[in-house]
Design a protein that fits this description.
The structure is a single chain. The protein is an alpha+beta fold. The protein contains 8 helices and 14 strands. The longest helix has 27 residues, at 5-31.
Length: 281
């Protein structure tokens, strides 16, 4: 079993391309053949009509759950659909074993509607720290990767989040109202102010990619599920951005964060968004 950070780094030096291949293969065999071809019986609801799961989600996660631990013996997988079936399996994120955090189809609603705004998210974490991530948008054939301390890339090109242009309104993607409590709605109202253009988010993974590319200034999210955030948090961080909770601390994939939280193009923007969220609470 992996016992220290250096060994994780050695694994990544040898096998990053193998993980990339596994992510692409999951999409090629289980997701894209069903894109715009889903039958009614291949789509189900989980907690409600806005929380969907498809055969593509289930089968892609099963594929990755089989392949990824073979690349890294002793590692475990925490996947969105497996946790839905067995909530106790989420606790592996806090364990000592390296953990693959998997969202097979992030943006399932977009996928079901036949829109290209979805992606597969995979992150490798160890003892609560995200070490590497893969964000693959198969309908757009885009792959973003990040390795802690080595930067972020999109299709091999380095990503630099930069900083918002002075004097321009901040562009912020926020949690969809369907997924917020009354208290979180009040906090998010702080973003409805002069100098901010806010909108409901789509696929969380693609919003993080937009921040890392400098196309979006910040996010403001109100839920903690690690499969939605682990890959993107590292991507933004390695592109030069920052993440911050309403409690003034970096977001922790192990939970216990003060919500909402933000990921932003730079630290100053992250602090500004948190100030606005705190003012709206």
């Amino acid at each position: 079993m992996i016992g220290d950070t250096e060994t994780i780094e050695e694994f990544l030096a040898r096998h990053t391309s193998d993980v990339e291949e596994a992510v692409r293969q999951a999409a090629d065999t289980e997701i894209m053949p069903r894109f715009r071809r889903l039958a009614d019986h291949e789509v189900d609801q989980k907690s409600g009509p806005h929380d969907l799961v498809t055969d593509a989600d289930r089968k892609a996660e099963l594929y990755l759950t089989e392949v990824l631990p073979k690349l890294l013996p002793g590692s475990v997988v925490v996947g969105e659909e497996a946790v839905h079936a067995d909530p106790d399996s989420y606790e592996a994120i806090q364990g000592d074993a390296p953990v693959w955090i998997v969202d097979p189809v992030d943006g399932t609603r977009q996928f079901v509607r036949g829109e290209p705004g979805f992606c597969t998210l995979v992150a490798l974490a160890h003892r609560g720290i995200v070490r590497a991530s893969w964000t693959f948008a198969p309908a757009r054939d885009q792959l973003a990767t990040a390795i802690r301390g080595q930067g972020a890339r999109l299709d091999g090109t380095p990503l630099h989040a930069g900083s918002p242009e002075p004097g321009r309104d901040l562009r912020v993607a926020t949690s969809h109202p369907d997924y917020t409590t009354d208290a979180q709605k009040r906090a998010l109202l702080g973003l409805w102010t002069d100098g901010v253009q806010s909108r409901p988010c789509g696929s969380a993974g693609l919003e993080y990619l937009a921040v890392a590319r400098g196309e979006l200034d910040a996010t403001a999210f109100s839920w903690e599920a690690a499969w939605d955030h682990a890959a993107g948090i590292l991507l933004v961080e390695e592109a030069g951005g920052a993440h911050l909770t309403r409690g003034g601390e970096p977001f922790r994939i192990t939970g216990g964060n003060t919500l909402p939280f933000t990921a932003a193009r730079d630290a100053a923007t992250a602090r500004r968004v948190v100030e606005l969220l705190s003012g709206g609470a």
